[in-house]
Amino acid sequence: MNPAILTAAHRSLAFGTKVKVTNRNNGRTVVVRINDRGPFIRGRVIDLSRAAAQNIGMVSSGTAKVCYQVIG
C-alpha cells in the first residue's frame, strides 16, 4: 500500500472498489480505492493510507471511529 495516495485495505471488498470514508469525530470525508487486504486487528474494519488518514484528520490519533459507504 502506497502511503502517498488515497487507498485503503479491507478484508472482503473487491480490489478497485471506491469507498467514501467519514471520520465520525469531525465529519470529514475522503474517497479511497481498495487495493490491499486487511486490517488483521480485531475490531478494525478498514486501514487507510497515510494520505487518506491525513485528509480526514486522524493521523495524530492513529485510529478513529469511521463510517464507510461503497460508491463504486
Automatic annotation (TrEMBL):
Entry-linked InterPro entries: RlpA-like_DPBB (IPR009009), RlpA-like_sf (IPR036908), RplA (IPR012997)
Signal sequence, start to end: none
Pfam families: DPBB_1 (PF03330)
Recorded superkingdom: Bacteria
Ranges where the RlpA-like protein double-psi beta-barrel domain occurs: 3-68
Lipoprotein among keywords: yes
Keywords: Lipoprotein
PANTHER family found in the cross-reference section: ENDOLYTIC PEPTIDOGLYCAN TRANSGLYCOSYLASE RLPA
Sequence similarity: Belongs to the RlpA family.
Name of the protein this chain belongs to: Rare lipoprotein A
